[in-house]
Design goal:
Distance between the termini: 51 Å
Bound molecules: iron/sulfur cluster
Number of helices: 12
Helix content: 25-40%
Largest sheet: 4 strands, antiparallel
Order of helices and strands: HEHEHHHEHEEEHEEHHHHH
Strand content: 15-25%
Low-confidence stretches: none
Strand order of the largest sheet: 1-2-6-3
Length: 320
């Protein structure tokens, strides 16, 4: 018989660091465009796998010495190679028991981008459906959303990425995480170079009696900074495009406008496209990479959680 324990044991042996399972009832309040059953109507369980982002992948960006390792190992093939392998192996494991295992590609999980295409017929939702990976991880009991909206786990704080499997197998769900990891220290707000995290406006969602609350975010400012167009977080724009001096605090681009802006300018700012070269031969020109390195929302956060003993410490503090 296929059980919760068997799936978790197999997924961890296949490379996942974290695995949690939610029943579909925990998504009852999700709108159809974010609901797993819009993709797979027979979904009974939602399995979330996580792989840690290694702390060392942030070091080069933190020291302003080496930018590609976070992008490659914390964002791209380095981490998703392992996560995708673990997810694929686990799907095969589930299907060997006669249940279907549907994956949810991460590219579809950018609700800020809006639908990628109009619906193919009037009775369908536009492709692709965006299941929130963070809310799925919350529903699967893996931790909570921090004030920054980055997902926090007791094992790694804000350092992990997720994959989702939908299955028609009825599995024992993991309990919702009832502890508190986010200390509301507000370092994410203060240290975000984009000023993208609101200090007082919040959004909340309730799952099985637990409220998950996080700050309202300005995704346009976040994306412009993430891709290195904020001089406070990137030394490259001022060197390669000295005439471009965006005051990020005054920008009101949407996430999609900032995303398109990044792609348009990446060819002109050599280092911004250079950091992503390790990802794929095909993508060797004009692709923006992560220059900011999540300075407030991830780096400041895990430094804080380590120093306050919420997550395990390392021998060397991240920020001395
Ligand atoms: S830095 Fe982390 S712990 Fe502090 S408020 Fe932000 S999310 Fe919470």
């Amino acid at each position: 018989m296929l059980t919760n324990e068997k799936i978790k044991d197999f997924a961890k042996k296949s490379g996942a660091d974290l695995v949690g399972i939610a029943n579909i009832e925990r998504f009852d309040k999700a709108p159809p465009e974010l609901h797993p059953r819009t993709i797979f109507p027979e979904t009974r369980s939602v399995i979330v796998l996580g792989c840690r982002i290694l702390r060392g992948s942030f070091r080069g960006v933190k020291e302003w010495t080496e930018w590609s390792s976070y992008w490659i190992f914390g964002y791209g093939a380095g981490i998703y190679g392992v996560l995708d392998e673990a997810t694929d192996m686990t799907r095969k494991f589930i299907e060997s028991y006669g249940y279907e295992a549907v994956d949810v590609p991460g590219i579809a999980t950018l609700p800020e981008a809006g639908p990628l295409r109009p619906p193919v017929s009037p009775d369908r939702y536009p492709p692709n459906i965006s299941i929130s990976f963070r809310l799925a991880a919350a529903a699967a009991g893996l931790g909570e959303l921090g004030y920054s909206k980055v997902f926090l786990t007791p094992e790694f704080g804000p350092r992990q990425r997720f994959a989702i499997i939908l299955t028609d197998a009825r599995l024992e769900p993991d309990p919702i995480f009832r502890g508190e990891l986010c200390t509301r220290c507000m370092r994410c707000v203060r240290e975000c170079p984009a000023g993208a995290i609101s200090k007082d406006k919040t959004i909340s969602v309730e799952i099985e009696g637990r409220i998950f609350e996080w700050a309202d975010l300005d995704y346009g400012k976040c994306k412009l900074t993430h891709w290195g167009f904020n001089r406070n977080a990137s030394p490259f724009v001022k060197k390669d495009l000295p005439g471009l001096n965006l005051d990020i605090s005054k920008q009101n681009m949407s996430w999609k406008e900032a995303y398109d802006f990044g792609w348009t300018l990446a060819n002109r700012v050599k280092y911004i496209s250079l950091v992503s070269k390790g990802i794929s031969e095909i993508e060797q020109s004009g692709r923006p990479g992560s220059i900011c390195g999540a300075r407030g929302c991830i780096q400041a956060c895990f430094d804080q959680l380590e120093k306050t003993g919420v997550i395990p410490k390392f021998y060397t503090p991240f920020i001395v």
